Structures are given as structure tokens and as C-alpha cells.
Amino acid sequence: MKQNTQSEWVQRSLKSVWHPCTQMQHHETVPLIPVSHGRGAWLYDTDGNRYLDAISSWWVNLFGHANPHINTALKDQLDKLEHAMLAGFTHEPVVRLSEQLAARTGNVLGHCFYASDGASAVEIALKMSFHAWRNAGHTAKQEFVCLKGSYHGETIGALAVTDVALFRDAYGPMLRQAHVVMSPDARAAREGETAADVARRAAHSLELLLQQRGTHIAALIIEPLVQCATGMAMHDPVYLSEVRAICDRYQVHLIFDEIAVGCGRTGTFFASEQATAKGTEGAEKQSVWPDFVCLSKGISGGYLPLSLVMTTDAIYQAFYDKDVTRGFLHSHSYTGNPLACRAALATLEIFEQDDVLNANKLKAQRMTAALQPLAAHPNVRHFRQRGMIWAFDAKIDDPAAAATFSRRFFSKALESELLLRPIGNTVYLMPPYILSDKECDLLVARTAAVFESVIGGDS
Ligand SMILES: Cc1ncc(COP(=O)(O)O)c(C=O)c1O
Asked: Could you tell me which residues carry N6-(pyridoxal phosphate)lysine (predicted)?
């Protein structure tokens, strides 16, 4: 790899750009990569180095950089309408997108409210839940429940239901306290317990809370199937059926934050499709649907900031009134941006044209098989996979080595043309869906080599 720390763009960026989620001083030793362009699964820097984007640029990119189908759609849209406000106006891309997404839920979640980033969708779902209860006369319902290790974004409301100390602690006094309940993380299995047993145990702990506080609780918010930001904690789908039934029992809204896990990432378009509503096993199986779904990241194919909240007719009707103050008076300037919606429509077209969910099943099987030698490495714990996400925990005995593992792995991976950013000691792969077999093999072989070299250096 050519050294680019002296690149003009790096120097100018370090002076003028405050980079996200970064202790800027670390860039004294950790490289900042000046990206010049992207193509398929690869990013290229200004010195001609290339990097396989094995984490889909923070989990947003589904079909590669500079995807020809999405590019064509965007160029067409650019000549028609770049933006118009969505209050009092509407346009074809936002209507078609809302209809197509609703259809994917069998029209159970038939109303789409738009925003830009994931955190704003979470804010909207929380506010909508709170306000719906208020409009219905349940003014005591003001509290929220989230899971241990949950991550729902960094704005004040979203951070209040986020349980990652690193992101939360500095702002603790600014945040409204949420109830934090046991995570169904399968790694918490006790001797003889299955992942489903852990899920049921976690659901039971939720039920105990709702028994006591249900009349004060507006909603439970969860990341279905995979709690990504805490370190790809995966759980059994039975958790979703259990919490749906419990929330119904105690009249608590259920919010599925599918910002990271939606759009096919876990194997189905919505993660929640992998759960079966309680009591409907067998012939007339029904999916589990929440009261609110938050989507973002992959929905625009990784092109433009777009997020949305889908909800039911019952919630929508709770706001439908002559009285303006009973309406949902929330807005962002770029709500429902036509370019972003058009990118999303082009993304959905690719899902259909390329039968992506079925193709991903085969890709995932192949990758999982190829990763088996790494899974069996003596320093690998809890190798796990769900859809197009693979993760494992590095066993590092020395606390000093553990503290720097992620940054050392990141730097070493870059030298091997891989963009990988472990979370703590969890290494994960979350690549775009368009990897060729050759690229999969390259990714697996080099990930194993990087791991060996970083772990070898630790011992
Ligand atoms: C589950 C989940 N919710 C919300 C967010 C916040 O999204 P954004 O970074 O677009 O605000 C993220 C981001 O990683 C996420 O993983």
C-alpha cells in the first residue's frame, strides 16, 4: 500500500473536517484515507490503493458503489425534480416508494413518514408512540424500554434508548432515563440452554417490567435479530413473537428499528419476517409486525440520506382530526427528498430483477463454509452468522492488547486492501450483496490472515 498520510486531501481534511465518531488525535497514528472514487465493492484512494468495502460503508451500501442501475435512475430524476417540500406537496417517487414498502408488509404498515438519517427515524417513532397514547387519553404513558446493549442513534431522544456507555455516558445528564431490559443475545446461554431459551428468558424479564410499569410505558424499541452496534449480538427470532405478544398484553407499542438489519441484511427484506406470530405456527403462519418500523441505511442503496417510519392505520387514525395539535407536527427540510426516494425505488427494483434474497442465501452459505477454518481458530469465540452478517469475538487475554485490538486490526486490514472496523473485540463482515465468488474468497482469506497477524502480535 502506498503511504498517503501526506496527501494534500488528508492534511486539508484534518484541518477543516471534524470526522464522525472519531477521537481526532488518533489520526496522528491511524491513517485517514482520501477516497477518490468507488466501483462495485471497492473504494479507491487518491494514491491508487483499493479497499474492499467489507462493511458496506457503515452498513449502507447494498449493490456496490457507482451502481449503474441506481446511477441511471438518479440522473433521470435529477432532470425532473431534485427536491420539493413534502408539506402541502407530493411527488411520484415518494408515493411509489411508500406503496411498495407498505405492500412488503401486506399493508399492515401502510403509512410512511419520512426523514433523513436513522436517528431521526427513531426520534419520530418515539414521538409518534408518545403522542398517539396522549391523543388516546393515556397521558401517563411516557416511558420507553430498550435492550441492554441497544443502539438507536446519537441524537438526544435516540441516545436515551441507547445502552452503549461509550456513546452515552458523556451526555447522561441530558438524557431521559429509559428502562433497560435483558438482551436476548444468544451468547448469554447458560449451560444446556438454547438461543431460543435465552430469548424466552429475556422476554420474561420484559414481562416482569411491564407487569409493574406497563401503564406508564409507551413503547419497547428493539433491533430485531441482530443488535449491530453493540457487537453483532444475535438472537433467536422467537424473541420477536414473544415480545409482540407481551406488548399486546400490556398495551405497549412495539418499535422495530430495522435501520441496520432491514433491506435484506438478515436474509429477509424485513428482519421481523423471520418470526412467526404466536399461536399461528403451522398452515396459517403469520409474520410478526410491530406498530412502527424504522428504516434507513440500505433503503437508498447507500446513496443518499433517507429514513422513514412505517406505521399502522390504528396509529395514523389516532392523529387524524380537525384539531391541528392532534396531528403529528414533525418535519425535516429534506423530508421525502425525491432523489433519495428514487434511489430507493431503483434499489427495490434490483431486489426484484436479481432475485436478491434468494441469491444471497447461496452467497451466505458459501461464505459461511469458507469461514469455517477461521471459526475454528483457538482465539475465535462465538462465530455467528445471520443472512449477510458474519461476526466472531477475538479471545485476547491481555487487557492492553484488547483495548487497541480494533484499531490495530483496522490498520492491518487496510494494508491487505480490506475495509474492516471491528467493534471492540468483535470482528464482523457486512459486505455489499454484489460480491463475486472471487471477492468472497479474497475477503475470507485476507480476513483470516489479518486476524492471525494481529492476534499473533498479541501473544
Ligand atoms: C440500529 C440502528 N439504529 C439507528 C442508527 C442511527 O442511524 P444514523 O447513523 O443514520 O443516524 C443506527 C446506525 O448505525 C443503527 O445501527
From this structure: 297
Q: How many CB atoms lie within 10 A of CB 221?
A: 27
Q: What is the average pLDDT across 406-421?
A: 96
Q: Nearest-5° angle of CA 386, CA 257, CA 96? A: 100
Sorted by sequence, the CB contacts under 8 Å of residue 139 that are 6+ apart come out as 133
β-bridge pairing 143-147 and 217-222: parallel
Render pLDDT for 184-216 as a digit per residue (tens, 0 to 9): 999 999 999 999 999 999 999 999 999 999 999
239/279: higher pLDDT: 239
Distance in angstroms (rounded) separating the CA atoms of residues 10 and 6? 7
- Beta-bridge partner residues of 293: 256, 310
Cell of 272: 421481523
Provide the grid cell at 75. Answer: 440522473
CA of 48 to the centre of ligand 1 (A): 31
Query: Hey, what's the torsion of the CAs at 303, 309, 312, 316, to 10 degrees?
Result: -120
Which residue puts its alpha carbon closest to atom 13 of ligand 1?
153
Range 245-248, long-range pairs (CB < 8 A, 24+ positions): 245/278, 246/203, 246/206, 246/207, 246/210, 247/210, 247/220
Of residues 333, 344, 304, the one with CA closest to residue 84:
333
What residues does ligand 1 touch, defined as CB less than 6 Å away?
117-119, 122, 151-153, 223, 228-229, 257, 259-260, 296
* CA distances for 378 relative to 31, 156, 311, 396, 422, angstroms: 30, 41, 46, 11, 18
User: For cell 461476526, what's the residue?
Assistant: 391
Q: Are 144 and 218 in contact (CB under 8 A)?
A: yes
282 annotated as a binding-site residue: no
Q: Give the residue-averaged pLDDT of 262-277.
A: 96
Q: Whose CA is nearest to atom 5 of ligand 1?
A: 153
Q: Domains for the chain: give ranges and CATH numbers.
A: 8-66+356-456 (3.90.1150.10), 70-353 (3.40.640.10)
Of 19, 257, 259, 389, which is best to mutate to test ligand 1, by the most ligand atoms within 8 angstroms of its C-beta? Answer: 259
